[in-house]
Write a structure and sequence with these properties.
The chain is mainly alpha-helical and 443 residues long. It contains 18 helices and no strands. It has one domain (11-435).
């Protein structure tokens, strides 16, 4: 049954609403380190880790237009007509992007992009292509799952959202461990199969859990004020989709830099493991965007949500810094992730550089939530354009003037990029908060 909100938004209620979503993101964050640990224990670990890093970056790029379906569903799915519009839109996006994924995987486009544009070592092209090909169901499964999860978040059923992720992670780990024991597939290909099986299982679970809620909440006629035309949906969604597309376009450019700076193979092998760890600490911040969209109504809720954001940012970045600065760093990369000593030695400076990334994730999610609630999604796109511009500029300048391993350049460019986005959003949200309703008047 949908949960009833309290009249006054307490820190305890925000925490209880946020926690299942944070656990969902954490479980997804642990999925990549688990897979990296499996690959590291198979044949040719450096090559297969590097290939999987390329594969996953490209899969995220193809997937990027559908990432914001979660927040769109939370914000817009208010009745039968609006949900139906979102469902048709999700189906269209899924078909187009899946066909594009297959075209890239099965034609010379893949080799051209990875080998020429990115400039990855030649021995990584075919291993990464095979992994990319088996991930073709990824985008559609994620799209439908996020649509149905958004409906559950909209009506306060965040516990069930977490359950869908438990099912996803369980399926993915079973396939990965089974493949490790079987030993028939290369590490990168096995990771691609495990991810695909996991997201399909998560999508089926989301469908099963959301169906009773959809039947109950969206059965009657929807007020005209809540209905959305295709044009209104596109006006809302296209800036959000561009946000992720621009963002993910910048990430393969990091691979370009990693391939051309010092220690290219080592940097390419360490990068997905480093970003998997960073993702763990950032993930709890990602969950906060949907919390803000679902709960922000007036000045009082704004103050309560801001207080929670500051606390969350302080805790997450503090824990990230603690890991980076203590022997926990070597335990994570060496014993848990199974990396070789030379890669572990490169990991500590890179991890220290990225330690503020967790706080940035919280503040970005908080401020994006405000802009989504106020329908200012174009400002989110502009903020990501700032991020990617700083990322690319920093990486190019570093390659030109700094003779250091590529992993250090990529970590520094990433940190500068997200700090820039955070500062830009802080500036922008200060100018729009005046549009929030007074206490007691819903937006």
């Amino acid at each position: 049954m949908p949960h009833r909100r309290p009249t006054a938004l307490s820190q305890h209620y925000i925490f209880r609403f946020w926690l299942p979503l944070a656990i969902m993101w954490l479980m997804m964050a642990f999925e990549l380190p688990i897979l990296a640990g499996v690959i590291a224990r198979m044949d040719a670990p450096k090559q297969q880790l590097a290939a999987f890093g390329i594969t996953f970056s490209l899969a995220l790029l193809i997937e990027s237009p559908i990432i914001m379906l979660l927040v769109a569903s939370v914000a817009l799915a208010r009745g039968r007509q609006s949900y139906g519009q979102l469902l048709r839109f999700t189906t269209l996006l899924s078909v187009v992007l899946t066909v594009f994924h297959l075209i890239v995987a099965l034609t010379p486009l893949y080799g051209t992009f990875v080998g020429v544009v990115i400039g990855a070592p030649a021995e990584l092209v075919e291993p990464s292509r095979r992994a990319f090909l088996v991930m073709f169901p990824w985008t559609a499964a994620v799209a439908y799952r996020r649509l149905w999860q958004g409906v559950m978040i909209r009506f306060g059923m965040t516990d069930q959202v977490g359950l869908t992720t438990v099912i996803r992670l369980t399926a993915s780990v079973i396939v990965a461990v089974g493949g490790l024991l079987w030993g028939a597939l290369p590490g990168a290909t096995l990771a691609g199969v495990a991810l695909s099986v996991g997201v399909i299982a998560g999508a089926l679970a989301a469908l099963y859990l959301s169906r009773p809620l959809i039947a109950q909440q969206f059965s009657g006629a929807e007020p005209a004020s809540s209905q959305i035309s295709l044009r209104a949906l596109l006006d809302f969604y296209i800036p959000l989709a561009l946000t992720n597309t621009i963002n993910f376009i910048g990430r393969p450019l990091l691979t370009f830099g990693l391939s051309r700076a010092l220690l290219p193979l080592e940097s390419l092998a360490l990068w997905p493991v480093l970003m998997s760890l960073a993702f763990i600490f950032r993930s709890v911040g990602f969950a906060y965007q949907e919390v803000v969209v679902a709960l922000l109504e007036d000045e009082a809720t704004h103050r309560a949500l801001k207080r929670f954001a500051i606390t969350l940012a302080t805790v997450t970045s503090g824990l990230f810094l603690l890991l980076a600065a203590t022997p926990l760093n070597d335990i994570w990369y060496g014993r848990i992730s199974g990396l070789s000593p030379d890669l572990v030695a490169l990991s500590r400076p890179s991890t220290l550089i990225l330690s503020l990334l967790a706080a940035c994730a919280v503040f970005i999610a908080w401020q994006r939530g405000i802009l989504v609630q106020l329908r200012r999604t174009r400002l989110i796109t502009l903020a990501v354009a700032v991020n990617v511009s700083v990322l690319v500029g920093s990486m190019l300048l570093g390659m030109r003037f700094l003779a250091v391993p590529g992993i250090y350049l990529a970590a520094g460019a990433t940190m500068l990029a997200f700090l820039s986005e955070t500062l830009f959003l802080t500036w922008q949200t200060r100018s729009v908060r005046e549009h929030l309703a007074p206490v007691g008047v819903p937006v």
